[in-house]
Amino acid sequence: MQADHADLAKALGKSRRSVVAYLEDLRRQGVCKTQPARNQHGQGQIEICDAFWPYERPLVPAKPQSLADYTAHIRRLLAGRACVKVSFSPADEKLAAAFFERQVPIETIEHGILMACTRKYMTLLTTPNSGLIVSLSYFKDAIEEAAASKVSNDYWRYLRQSIDGLEKEWLQKVRSPRAQ
To answer: Range of 131's domain?
Structure first.
């Protein structure tokens, strides 16, 4: 579901700070996954984890059926990270098409983006002026690394949780008056 902290606070009769703390606690306990909004005016996403979701989820095709769907999925993955400002140039379209033609699973693309963005946040936290990611080609090596890796789903789950904290830390650092 998509929601912002202000709407949740109003609906629950709680402060925004309490809602943020409650959601973070639920995320840490593995009850839900959260995708923060890009800024305080946007909506973030909350997904209840399967173990706590009593209903059947609609089946989502695991593999995009067309190049357009595949590219749209990659765009959504990139748009979900604050360290990425990809405008999706013709070169990016060409690279996405090459991944599609090679039948690189969208999950592998996601894993490569997770690895590369985690590394980028680490760099941004230690070298603030290093710049944002502006091209899909930035992820090419990480996608190849993800395709060759033999790590468990637990690692990818851990990385998804870790990256949220790194992103939040970096956003706070960028927004703090000292960073200006």
So the answer is: 67-179
